[in-house]
Amino acid sequence: MEKSMYPKQLLLSVSLSALMAAPALAADMPSSSRLDAVTLFPRGAELTRFAEVTLEPGSHTLIFSDLPDRILPNSVRVEGQSDAAGLAISSIDTQRIFLDSEAISGGEYKKLKDRIEALQDKRKRLDVTIRTAETQLNLLQNLATLPTVPPAAGGSAPAPDWHTILTLIGGMDEVQTRILGAREGQRELDRQIEELNKQLSLLNPGRTARTRVKVFIAAKAAGKALFRIRYQIRNGGWQPFYDLRLNTGASGKGPDLELVRRASISQSSGEDWQNIEMALSTTRPQSGTSAPNLRPNLVRYRQPVIAYRKQAPSKARRRMVGAMPEMADAMPAPMAAGAAAPKPVMEQEASVESYAFQAVYRIPGRVSIKSGAAAKKLRIDAARPELKLNVRAVPALDSTAYLYADITWNGKTGLLPGRASLYRDGAFSGTGALPLVNPGDSHEIGFGADDKVKVKRIQQSREKSVTGLLSSSNVDERDYLITVENLHGQKVPVSIFDRVPYSEDEDIEVNLLAKTTPPSRKNPDGKRGVMAWDFGLDAGGKKEIRLNYRISWPKKKAIEFVTR
After folding, report:
1. Residues 6+ apart with CB under 8 A from 352
2. Rg (CA), the chain
3. CA of residue 70 relative to chain centroid, distance
4. Cα-Cα-Cα-Cα dihedral sign, residues 354, 359, 361, 362
């Protein structure tokens, strides 16, 4: 969190849209800033940097050239606080600039180059050592063979000097060891040079874009000042995802669900975020701030089409049309036994600040996120929502019964849409998705097949006929039997869904017949023709459901079934 460093404060916030003329004869003061805090939105982020400077009386221009390239220029705000009164910010200015790698890395590029050069020089010295040792080895080998050289004609062979020969052989062993050591040293140097070259390549040698911010100030007295620079970027954000861990209560306890909320964070601003405070906001500044404008809609009789003579486009028109794709491309993108029981490792959670229209999750401690790297995963919080379990089946499409959890969200802040990993009694059962769920809202989510509930759907009969004397009608009567069996050791709530066709034509009639088991619900969620039977099924129990309906329509017409 930010803390005031000075007893007397000067706070003057300036936006780019209110630029004023810079003071004449302003003294340029190149300054550096450090990134301290980031607030991430689902799309975009707001960054806060701090810079401490010592000022003399007079007009000055603070120049910050360490901001990343891809910032939103109109979002730049500068505030300050000083230990001396009379410091004022008159205006700020932004400019896109290009810096070489050495300037960007603060000398790190040159340091790496110097280290590589030093290692390369050391490797060359080992080359000299190897060549010298190889020359010595050749000389020793030649000296060792002299006693075996035959004498000249008429001469006598001297007696072999074995002491000298053995000494030479021992010398050769020493030289060979020196050669091997030098080559091992070269291999190690090669590895170090390769690693440094990799680090060097990450600094992107050459010209790299940055944003330069100039702050025009006037100081009436000498003193120290702390400036805060805020700006926004598009190339960053966070997405929620969830762990839903369901305990079905099979061990004798009641069912229980733990919902763990997590965040996936990524950024490609061109700047690594090192040791920063981080907050996650549910605000969506890139999604607009107002409703669309609804224009009047006139209905009238169709107007006759007036035909115009087609004309060839003018040269100016052709130039404009030819330039349009390029202009479109240039537009910015939218936005062990006997031992003490082991203790579980706890994950840190965020603190939550809930407001009327948004929530802010403050991540504990400080974090680091590299630009363009894989997304960082953080835990936000965990909760246990209210829970009801039921088994659902749609035997007309799938004879499998599925376990569903009907959760009522009791958290202080809503759940944003996101993917969910589902666990049932400790085992991973699949993935699902959560929509936007506000406090007090309910949502059902499936946790996979329930193999202990058996469902069958059998067509008992189907009869087609023609009825009537004066006006004949086609008749199609169908009769289905659905059986449900509970193999669990306890009572299970079950919902069976099926359907009958519905008609929007008065000549096509659909009627439920008396054999049909009365449904608990008709047209659930506004789905016409769909029916649901809700019941509790005791352990080992069975239930039969009959669905019997008749369709009739004029004989001379054909019908079709359309799924919507």
Report:
1. 359, 360, 361, 362, 381, 412, 413
2. 40
3. 19
4. negative
Q: Name the more confident of 129 and 20.
A: 129
Query: CB within 8 A of 448, min separation 6: which ones?
Result: 402, 403, 422, 424, 429, 430
pLDDT tens digits, 426-456: 999 999 999 999 999 999 999 999 999 999 9
Residue 246 lies in a domain: yes
DSSP string, 32-62: --EEEEEEE-SS-EEEEEEEEEEE-SEEEEE
Domain identity same for 137 and 264: no
**For the CA atoms of 491, 495, 498, 503, what is the dihedral angle to 10 degrees?**
140
Which residues are 60's β-sheet partners? 27, 217
3-state secondary structure 169-238: HHHHHHHHHHHHHHHHHHHHHHHHHHHHHHHHHCCCCCCEEEEEEEEEEEECCCEEEEEEEEEEECCEEE
Q: Are 396 and 544 contained in the same domain?
A: no
Note whether 359 and 261 are within 8 A (CB).
no
Residues 407 and 442 in one domain: yes
pLDDT confidence band for 155 (50 / 70 / 90) = low
Percent of the chain with pLDDT over 70: 77
Q: How far apart are CA 457 and CA 396, in angstroms?
A: 7
Q: Name which of 403, 405, 398, 404 is nearest 498 in CA terms.
A: 398
β-strand pairing of 273-281 with 367-369: antiparallel
Q: How confident is the model at residue 160 (pLDDT cuts 50, 70, 90)?
A: low
Range of the domain at 256: 237-285+347-449
Q: How many domains does the chain have?
A: 4
DSSP state of 150: P
Q: How many CA atoms lie within 13 A of 280 on its CB side?
A: 26
Distances from the Cα of 315 to the Cα of 193, 312, 321, angstroms: 60, 9, 10
Average pLDDT, the chain: 82
φ, ψ (nearest 5 deg) of residue 345: -80, 125
State the Cα–Cα distance between residues 235 and 522, nearest whole angstrom. 48
Q: In what order do the strands lie in the sheet with 492-499?
A: 442-449, 398-408, 386-394, 492-499, 530-537, 521-522
Which of these, 338, 359, 64, lies nearest to 217 by C-alpha position?
64
Secondary structure tally for the chain: helices H, strands E: 4, 28
On whether both 275 and 393 belong to a single domain, the answer is yes
Same domain, 40 and 59: yes
Residues 245 and 352 in one domain: yes
Q: Is the pLDDT of residue 131 over 70?
A: yes
Is the whole-model pTM more than 0.70?
Answer: no
- Confidence label for 233 from pLDDT (cuts 50, 70 and 90): very high
Token pair listed for 342: 């082991």
The arithmetic mean of pLDDT across residues 18-39, rounded, is 71
Query: Helix (H, G, I), strand (E, B), or coil: what is residue 526?
Result: helix
20 in a domain, yes or no? yes
Question: Per the structure block, which two tokens stand in for 563?
Answer: 């799924």
pLDDT in the model for residue 100? 64
Q: What is the pLDDT of residue 416?
A: 92
Q: Any idea which of 294-308, 421-435, 490-504 has the lowest mean pLDDT? A: 294-308
**Single-letter code of the amino acid located at 72:** L
